[in-house]
Structures are given as C-alpha cells and as structure tokens.
Specification:
The protein is an alpha/beta fold. It has helices spanning about 25-40, 70, 90-95, 100-110, 115-120, and strands spanning about 15-20, 55-60, 75-80, 85-90, 125, 135-140. It has a domain at about 15-65 and about 100-140: Ribosomal protein L13 (Ribosomal Protein L13p, Chain: A, Alpha-Beta Complex). Belongs to the universal ribosomal protein uL13 family.
C-alpha cells in the first residue's frame, strides 16, 4: 500500500493568509512570508513544484527594522548605463513606497529560480489595513503570532 499523497487537488489547494506587519521586524516577517509562498509549511512540499499559498500583508508602513538600519541600510540597483548605480536608503524607500521594502526582503529570501516571479505574484502588500481580498482570507496572522 502506497503512502504517497499524490497530485490531488485538495493537497495542492492554495490558501489565503493575511499577515499584519504592524510592529513586526522586517527580516523575521519576510522569512515567514517566503516560507508560506514556497509551501514549506505543507507536508507535500517539493522544491521543484509550486505548491505555496497566497499571502496578503497589511500595514506595511508600520514595519520595523532593528539597530541603525533605517539610516544605514541601502538598496542598490544599476540602470545598465555607465555610472548608472542608484542607491536609496531604507528611510527614503519607506517614504517613497513602503511596500517595496517588504517585497525586496521576501524576494531575496526566495530561491533564485524560475518559480521566483510566480511566487512573488502571489504576494499582495498594502500600506493600510484595508485590502480587496477579504472574502478569500482563510488564515489570519496577527502581530503576536508567528505564522
């Protein structure tokens, strides 16, 4: 008798999670979100299969960083032109787009393969507490719970 779960629709069903980012540390939040996007919390996890869930992050503007990272943490990208290195620190990025810091942190914690962009498409981040996916949410993760 086989004990394999198999490719059943129920095993691969995607669940919607909502995570409240208020007063949560950026790195610890990002590791939990990346784990959920990959599906590592499921018993059917396979690195080559896309079996992760949807994650909605609310209150992204209230995220915390430890130490002096608010002034010292730099996000760099290159335009591709000579002298095109662009830098922005965490505080300025939060003023410009508070959701982007969470997206970059989660992106850095996902495996660098073909599934990375597909998994990031299942991540929805909002500045405030309101979001349009209220009917889909099955699991709530508050500021005190660990996801």
């Amino acid at each position: 008798m086989s004990q394999a779960v198999g490719n059943t629709a129920l095993a691969y069903a995607r669940v919607w999670h909502v995570v409240d980012a208020r007063q949560r540390v950026l790195g610890r939040l990002a590791t939990n979100v990346a784990t959920t996007l990959m599906g590592k919390h499921k018993p059917i996890y396979d690195p080559a299969a896309d079996c992760g869930d949807y994650v909605v992050v609310v209150n992204a503007k209230d995220i915390l960083v430890t130490g002096k990272k608010a002034e010292q943490k730099l996000y760099r990208h290159h335009t591709g032109h000579p002298g095109g290195l662009k830098e922005i620190n965490f505080a300025n990025l939060m003023e410009k787009d508070s959701t982007e810091s969470i997206r970059k942190a989660v992106s850095g914690m996902l495996p660098k393969n073909r599934l990375r962009d597909v998994r990031l498409n299942r991540l929805m981040i909002f500045d405030g507490a309101e979001h349009p996916y209220e009917a889909n949410i099955i699991k709530q993760h508050g500021a005190q719970s660990k996801q």
